[in-house]
Structure formats: C-alpha cells, structure tokens
Amino acid sequence: MIYVGIHGFGTIQLPTTLINTIEKMMTYFWWGHGKTTQRGIHWEKHSAPKVHGGMGFKDLTTFNLAMLGKKGLKFFTEPDSHAACIFKARYFPSGTYLTAQLGHNPSYVWRSILRTGFLVCGGTR
Asked: What are phi and psi of 35, to 5 degrees?
C-alpha cells in the first residue's frame, strides 16, 4: 500500500512512476476495474477542468511542483524561518534562495526544492 500525504508532496519531488501509480489507484477507486467489465475513463478526463467536461482532479505532477515551489517561496519571503535558516546555513550561506546553487553533496529535499526555483522567479517581482 502506498501512502503519500500532503507533506510528501511538499518535501520531495516524487518519481513519475509513483505519481502514475497513485493516479492509477485513484482511477480504480473512482471507476472500478472489474474482471468482467472494463468501465471507466482515462486520467486525462479526471484531471481536466470541470468547464471542459472533466472532473477537476489535480494533476499530481503539477501539484507536487507547486507545493515544492511554496517551500522555495517561503525561503525567499521568510528568510528568518527555522527551515530557511537551516537550508541557508547549509546550501546558500552568502546569498538568497534565488541565487543558490546545488552545492556539494546536496540532499534530495534540497534538490527537489531547488528545481522549483524557476517557478518562484517567474512569480516574483
């Protein structure tokens, strides 16, 4: 059984295979997958907006990037927060989150948060 809470989406970039598995499980939950009947709809129909005939479910890859970008934005807007101070001391002691580099031997959490730097840069003025 796979359990990934909201915290998991905001902490690391989840592998594509895991996201596909979660989406498949969500599809089976909502539409079933019986042995005698093959009923249901594809995930693209689930994640399409309601105005376009879909069900409005979140695209989990986009949601994962958004949650990671939210952490990066917090590092930028609240540099004195506990988490920002820890990451700043380790990965960008003389700069800001937006100017940070990958560094030597980075953690997977830092790699994941740093990958969303383009989102934070694109959304700030």
From this structure: -75, -30
Tell me: the pLDDT tens digits for 92-105?
999 888 888 898 89
pTM of the predicted model as reported, rounded to 2 decimal places = 0.77
Distance CA 109, CA 90 (A): 12
* CA–CA gap between residue 113 and residue 68 (Å, rounded): 5
- 6-20 pLDDT per residue, tens: 778 888 999 999 998
Provide the token pair at 13. 């970039």
